[in-house]
Amino acid sequence: MLEFRDLFQWDRFITPTIIKTFYWLVIALIILWGIRGIFTGLAEMAISPFGGFLLLLSSLAGVIVGMVFSRIIAEFVLIVFRINEHLGAIREQGRM
Known about the structure:
- Keywords: Membrane, Transmembrane, Transmembrane helix.
- Pfam families: DUF4282 (PF14110).
- This is DUF4282 domain-containing protein.
- It comes from Bradyrhizobium aeschynomenes.
- By secondary structure, the protein is an all-alpha fold.
- Helix 1 packs antiparallel against helix 2.
- The protein is about 80% helix and about 0% strand.
- About 0% of the residues are buried.
């Protein structure tokens, strides 16, 4: 768990702890963007049914793609920090 004193010490990275919060924030923003796109698509259907339907489908696809890509990016950041931890453990084993 993240403690306040960890912010002022360089023994431990805080990014792996914080990345989960940012991931859920991005997911919430993607969902809000998708809801806005759905309502815009429904409103557009009054003017152009086909154009509104395409906007509706693209909003739904954008939400799905956005969720997948945000998960990939979050996992990539966590993998980079995990690699760093493993390399540190290997370095410590070599010193003994």
